[in-house]
Amino acid sequence: MTQSVVVQVGQCGNQVGCRFWDLALREHAHVNKTGVYDEALSSFFRNVDSRKADSGACAVGGRIQHLKARAVLVDMEEGVVNEILQGPLREVFDSTQLLTDVSGSGNNWAVGHMTYGSAYREQIVDKLRKAAEHCDCLQCFFLIHSMGGGTGSGLGTRVLSLLEEEFPDVCRIVTSVYPSAEDDVITSPYNSVLAMNELTEYANCVIPVENQSLVDIVNKIKHMSDGGMAGPVIKKDSTIISGRGGTSGMEKPFDAMNNIVANLLLNITSSARFEGSLNMDLNEIAMNLVPFPRLHYLMPSLTPLYTLADVNVPTRRLDQMFSDAFSKDHQLIRADPKHSLYLACALIVRGNVQVSDLRRNIERLRPSLPFVSWNQEGWKTGLCSVPPVGHSHSLLALANNTCVKSRFIDLRERFTRLYRKKAHLHHYLDVEGMEQSFFSEAVTSLSSLIEEYNQLDATKNKVIHDAPRLSIAT
Amino acid sequence: MSVVTVQLGQCGNQVGQELYDVICCDAQQGQRKPYCKASCERFFRQNTRGDLVARAVLIDMEPKVINRSMRKAAESGRWTYGEASHFSQKQGSGNNWANGFCVHGPRHREVVEELVRREVEHCDRVSGLMALMSVAGGTGSGVGTYVTQCLRDTYPKSFVVNHLTWPYEAGEVIVQNYNSALTLSHLYQLSDAVLVHENDTVHRICSRLLRIKHISFSDVNKVIAHQLGSVLQPALTADSQGVYSRSPVGIDWQVSAPSGAERSRSLTGSSFNTSLANLLILRGKDVYSAETGGFEDPALYTSWLSPDAAFTSWKSPVPFNKYEKSATLVSNSQALLRPLDNMVRNAWNMFASRAYVHQYVRFGISEEDFLDSFTSLEQLVSSYSQLC
Ligand SMILES: Nc1nc2c(ncn2[C@@H]2O[C@H](COP(=O)(O)OP(=O)(O)OP(=O)(O)O)[C@@H](O)[C@H]2O)c(=O)[nH]1
Ligand SMILES: Nc1nc2c(ncn2[C@@H]2O[C@H](COP(=O)(O)OP(=O)(O)OP(=O)(O)O)[C@@H](O)[C@H]2O)c(=O)[nH]1
Ligand SMILES: [Mg+2]
Ligand SMILES: [Mg+2]
User: Fold this and answer.
1) What transmembrane ranges does the database entry give (chain A) (predicted)?
2) What would the pLDDT profile of A215-224 be if each residue is shown by its tens digit?
3) Which of B6, B69, B89, B134 best tests ligand 2's pocket when mutated (most atoms within 8 Å of CB)?
4) Do B207 and A471 touch (CB under 8 A)?
5) Among A68, A91, A109, A388, which one has the highest count of C-beta atoms within 10 angstroms of its own C-beta?
6) B214 and B104 in one domain?
7) Given strand A299-303, what is the order of strands in its sheet?
8) Are residues B220 and B131 in the same domain?
């Protein structure tokens, strides 16, 4: 079994991360009835017995003592992390995993990346190494952060480049929360574009999630569960939006949104944690979904999101789940993949689902989904036998689709609107180590990324002939 | 005469487990001592407690599948895998042939060779070695190819056979055509015979003939295991005087095509399936009176090989798996040409855009290596399509 380490940076990163730990604990509690620390648990948790010497780590197979998250928490202010330390998850982290400062990055990428990045570099590397030493086979780092603020965006991407430097062979999967157009952080376009330059360079995969989409989903779920619709009811024990039954008490403003992101992470990691007849290892994600190194943005969609009462026959519901994954209202980032070009697509399925179900649904959906000419069969599938708590099955689709560029074009526009007026620029340029060229480089990188997607898009409705085959002497 | 198998990767370990199950079940059916004895000796050894232990080595780069296969074998109550006949690591090859072939294979060469050697030493006589694997993933295909190469070197005189599971056309692995191309181009030079099961075909058998509603890999593997079992189980031949001596994998397929023939690429044009050689295995009731003349029609074969040489039949009055009668055909023919050609075309189209190539370069497979593989596969496609 392999292990992964979650690195959560900034307010958003830490809040999403905590929802993940809460739900992961719940999922394991549901599956693991014996109280034995098993392989599945060991992939994201250490088992620590404080009475024992040398950090008290216990091997797989023994009783569960204290579970500690394989996580590093970084924020440049104390509020969020302190709240975690006073909350129900406090036992899951210990002080050696935390790194905080007091004043935050003030929504300034440069402060996070340059000022704090340089000041805390050694300490961060130290904590990462410690976390890595606790693993016997470290497979993946999951970085969680937001794009719009200063710490997650600036310091988060600094951490990413440190990961690549220190652990070049360990996969780096980044979950990035993109700001919505009406974000309250005015400088969020700057921060996002500057961060994207780093993501494009140093991540193996980026899973972009958009706050606007999360808000829309949460509103729709609320509307349904408030009895706005006759008949269908949301299951109360579902892990999708509710924190109930978990370790946390009161719900906070972002909780419902963050739960959705946490579910995304639970699904991605399911195959690494549990058995299945078609395992999908974490290192298979980049291998199958990233045809060209820079084009590693994978758009997530999750089903079921709007769990309805169980009235339909099971197979119809299952097939519906596959259809939903390609519909607009299940995308965690605003996009319309059906009307753009797929470079590749992964289906990560959990629960009692068989290959024949996969085959049937791929056959059914394929005609309506345009794939790039050289990857007409660009499907990657994984079957994990353990479903999420409260569901019989679930599906996470990760699409490498050219429509992600529309989000990037939006972002570039918002960036340019500020940059033309040089608005707030001095806040950045005052930071030691920051230069104006960083802005122009970042926007150039973004433009060339968009251009790469454009070129692939341009092949869409063209008749592409097979490449002339090698001729051999006979 | 015994056969040692090496099960590699998820698919190899899942198919292998079903195979031993079928063979063991079949061998222990009814009162047929010599058959049972021959079958057991071929595929199993006995440990000190007298249990049947499969002559198998289990290899994967991650532990989950091997654990499950060993558990399932033990649960059968009839046979087990050797307690120390397996080797796994913590993290799979990530569907990357280069990772399997260039990194994991060489790194674990000694351990794997030692496990195989121990299994071989348990045999009085070894008639062949068989590697079971899929071609689409990273471990079965990459490590499997590397291990086949090692077996070839270590046992130059033994029969080395590969059983390959061909991926579904719309795959579960996106880079499956690359992995398949790299595997086949190597095995083509290493292996004495390559037995192939296409997942799509077997899946169709499950849905149309067996009418299974929710087809699982286990269903697919049972069909594969039955077909493979009926090929591999002992059979009497005309010259064997009632002794089950026929080498189970002694199918002589090494027929090379004549050179200089006109090259034709119109695969869709003629739908006739020309064979190089066919092996028909009949088991059960009335096998000696069965009419097999249809298989001896010269029109089925190439003009340069007479049906006498191209057609073989094995017959055994012992029924297989409780079937009153059963027939199994192993065919070296153009049947695989279409999937092979599709695979090469898809891989080549992808390669033309250099998509995913960087993932292979990272582990030491260069663009030239790809080109070499494509060249030898085009040769293979061309040889098969010229059969007439
Ligand atoms: N989905 C989600 N978005 C959040 C959350 N917290 C903040 N955001 C978003 O993240 C962006 C602001 O970044 P933060 O993560 O608050 O900032 P930070 O990384 O702590 O950086 P500084 O506060 O500048 O030091 C805005 O777009 C917010 O809408 C959260 O818990 N969930
Ligand atoms: N028939 C059959 N095919 C399988 C089975 N398991 C996997 N496959 C096929 O095998 C291919 C995937 O290869 P795997 O064997 O899972 O990969 P692996 O050898 O373990 O390699 P990595 O996981 O990449 O390290 C796909 O084409 C699957 O359709 C099985 O039990 N039966
Ligand atoms: Mg903050
Ligand atoms: Mg595997």
Assistant:
1) none
2) 999 988 887 7
3) B134
4) no
5) A109
6) yes
7) A299-303, A393-401, A342-351, A379-384
8) yes
